[in-house]
Amino acid sequence: MTNKLQQYFPMIRTREEVLNEIESKNKLKNLFYEWTEENQNEFLDFCTGVKGYFSDKE
Q1: Closest by alpha carbon to 13, among 50, 39, 42?
Q2: Which helix (H) or strand (E) holds 32?
Q3: Which residues lie closer than 8 Å to 46 by C-beta, 6 or more apart?
């Protein structure tokens, strides 16, 4: 399923695609599963365009 952001930026991958990439590479897989579930979800949200980056530095 594509989200609205993917309609304009087709290079943004789905959650499943990102997880498949992580699972296919041992280094990524080991690192990813060392993180808390909250950090894993935040990373996936960022990679899929669900959540953006916010910096309070000007």
Answers
A1: 50
A2: helix 26-34
A3: 52, 53
In terms of pTM, does the model score above 0.90? Answer: no
Non-local CB neighbours of 19 within 8 Å, separated by 6+ positions: 44
- Sequence-distant (≥ 6) Cβ neighbours of residue 53 within 8 angstroms: 46
CA distance 20 to 8: 23
Structure tokens, 29? 């897989």
Report residues of the chain scoring pLDDT below 50: 1
Residue 6 amino acid letter: Q
